[in-house]
UniProtKB/TrEMBL annotation:
The keyword Repeat does not apply. It is a multi-pass membrane protein. Belongs to the binding-protein-dependent transport system permease family. This is ABC-type nitrate/sulfonate/bicarbonate transport system permease component. The keyword Nucleus does not apply. It is found in: Cell membrane. GO terms for cellular component: plasma membrane. Keywords: Cell membrane, Membrane, Transmembrane, Transmembrane helix, Transport. The chain crosses the membrane at residues 41-58, 105-129, 141-159, 165-184, 263-284. Signal peptide: none annotated. It comes from the Bacteria. GO terms for biological process: transmembrane transport. Residues 97-281 form the ABC transmembrane type-1 domain.
Length: 302
């Protein structure tokens, strides 16, 4: 059976179509970035207002004990107003929390990087070698159903105390959502794009680098927005269970000393940090998708 060979002009049109699918004009790209950043900042502002109001309302409705339950104003006073009943000055309190935050960010960073790198490698292998996915994806999903609180002591017994355990616990939180979403993104490549690559002699790796990776970018960044606060949660869980380091480790000490102001300050601080990193991830996503295009990797059809 005879097969048709693409003409040079048809080939040029096909290549232009594929390039158009992964790039945007500079002006449109910057407008896309500015729009995403503006919407993110507006959403962030509205969320902060809603959370603050909900905080006040919840404490009021629950008639919570003022000694334990602190309002946003109480946290501000704890961090910035001198209290004669406390031995530490507000500056010392902020300095202590900052140092504790750096430790937690170090632990979270190890887990975040390890989880992202591991999930990218495994999802690429799953995509290129289908039998691997059939064999190991059910096992990965089974492990995902095990509560992290139950898994953490086992990880601690195997790896001991240290950065490896902190990274592994945080990496577990990051790894599974990224693995599932990246594999889904790689699998959702359009048939037209795959055919185009194969017509010009491309192999599986060419399809992966030229089409699948751009196509998976929205899936990747959607998972990254979940992974960033997840890494912080994993790091604090490690610190709370096994060490006296970082923000997670100090919570137990603060509870023992009835230092509820510090507990609420830690909660607010880690929440703000998670939101900041979430927002930064959104900005990076906007910049990357402005280059590749919101419909990166998808075939252009007329």
């Amino acid at each position: 059976m005879a097969t048709s060979t693409p003409t040079p002009r048809a080939g040029l049109r096909a290549r232009a179509a594929m390039n158009a699918s992964i790039e945007m004009p500079t002006g449109a790209g910057w407008r896309y970035v500015a729009g995403r950043i503006g919407r993110s900042l507006f959403t962030l502002l509205i969320s902060a207002v809603v959370l603050t109001v909900a905080w006040y309302v919840a404490l009021k409705l629950l008639d919570a004990n003022a000694f334990i339950a602190k309002t946003p104003l109480d946290v501000v006073k704890y961090l910035f107003v001198k209290n004669p009943l406390m031995t530490m000055s507000p500056a010392d309190i902020r300095h202590t929390l900052w140092n504790l935050l750096l430790v937690t960010l170090y632990h979270a960073g190890i887990g975040f990087v390890g989880g992202v790198v591991g999930s990218v490698i495994v999802s690429v292998l799953f995509t290129l070698i289908r039998p691997l996915e059939f064999m190991f994806m059910p096992l990965a999903m089974l492990l995902r159903t095990v509560p992290l609180l139950a898994m953490a002591p086992v990880i601690y017994l195997v790896l001991g105390q240290g950065a490896a355990t902190a990274g592994f616990i945080g990496g577990v939180v990051v790894f599974f959502p990224l693995l599932v979403n990246l594999t889904l993104g790689f699998r959702s490549v359009s048939a037209q794009s795959v055919d185009l690559i194969r017509v010009y002699g491309g192999n599986r790796w060419t399809i992966m680098t030229k089409v699948a990776f751009p196509n998976a970018l929205p899936h990747f960044f959607a998972s990254m927005r979940i992974a960033v606060p997840g890494a912080l949660t994993g790091a604090m869980l490690y610190e709370w269970l096994f060490t006296f380091q970082g923000l997670g480790g100090v919570i137990s000490q603060a509870k023992t000393n009835s230092n509820y102001g510090q507990i609420w300050a830690i909660v607010v601080l880690i929440t703000v940090v998670a939101i900041v990193f979430y927002t930064i991830t959104t900005f990076i996503e906007a910049a990357v998708l402005a280059k590749w295009g919101p419909n990166a990797g998808k075939a252009v059809t007329k």
